[in-house]
Amino acid sequence: MNDVDVLEWTLAGYAGEQLAEEAQLLNKTVDYAGGQLIFQDYGVVVIEPAAPGTKDVVFSCAVHGDETAPIEIIRDMVQGIMQGEIKPVQRTLFLIANPAAIAINKRFVDMNMNRLFSGAHADGHTPEHKRAANLEHYVTAFYNDAPAGERQRFHYDLHTAIRDSQYEKFAVHPFTHGGPYKKSQLTFLAECGVTTMLLSQSPTTTFSYYSARTHAAEAFTVELGKVRPFGQNDRSKFAAAEQMFTRLIVEHELSLPEFDPYRTKVFDVCRTINRTVEDFTLHFPDDVANFTAFEQGYLLATDGDTEYRVERAGERIVFPNAKVALGQRALLTVIDVSKKRLQLV
Ligand SMILES: [Zn+2]
Known about the structure:
Blueprint: H1 6-14, E1 29-32, E2 35-41, E3 44-49, E4 55-61, H2 68-82, E5 91-96, H3 99-103, H4 127-144, E6 152-161, E7 170-173, H5 183-191, E8 196-199, H6 207-215, E9 218-226, H7 239-250, E10 265-274, E11 280-282, E12 292-293, E13 299-303, E14 306-309, E15 316-318, E16 329-336
Parallel strand pairs: 4-5, 4-6, 6-9, 7-8, 8-10
Antiparallel strand pairs: 1-2, 2-3, 3-5, 7-9, 10-16, 11-13, 12-15, 13-14, 15-16
Bound molecules: zinc ion.
Zinc ion is lined by residues 64, 67, 159.
């Protein structure tokens, strides 16, 4: 039982393959030193410590199926728990979000799953719509099943980016609807090696916004580096993040260094540029890194007859992708935020 690879199990089960008897884990509960692992669904594993702490922690990966490093991290954390090397004291939910996309080594099958949360899954009938709805259901059940009393909810949705980045690791902070930002999260993420934060300024249909808005979780989309195939990730680059994710669930009181406002670069989302017509072009090379700044007036994109130029000094590009479906985001621009303006608690 301890040798079951949760990723292989998920892919085989999701594909409907006949599993060997020792891999028949669906709906099963397995003991670990300190609690139980519950295999709720393929790619859905709940950790219930016998004497749980006050945190409910969700780690998700493979919302984009070809972003392998986070999948390896989660596979190994689950493996570590099964083998008794990691002993969580905090309730934890591990999600391998899109097994069908992993199986074909693609970002997604029919639809970008990170646009299908907060109810957007009701607008279609692809397997990704259905899976997004199920994932919301599992997250809701996980948070609601927590013991009574004051609790803290977390959700780290782990990704890797398609292109290079001037800041290798960064997180997207979902829109807070005017709420403050947490120093403890900036510090935790900095300890993970994530020292760049991008503040979203509007509601979205991403997984992290869903958990933040619907469940009041401290939730983030975390970009841990660049996309590579399975087995080609340099895991040493992710070691700090892996160590912090593990500490978050095995320690009762996670001690962090004092908050240092100069540790994290913070950007506001300035503009979202959508592709609305077939004739859409980005006017910079494919290998331009995320967070590259262009001069004011530079033509960034044309969407049919509409030109998008750099409007503000210091405006930088993030997540460019000219090949998105019509109506979807092809480019974000971001701008530096003064820490003095940021409401921190
Ligand atoms: Zn991604």
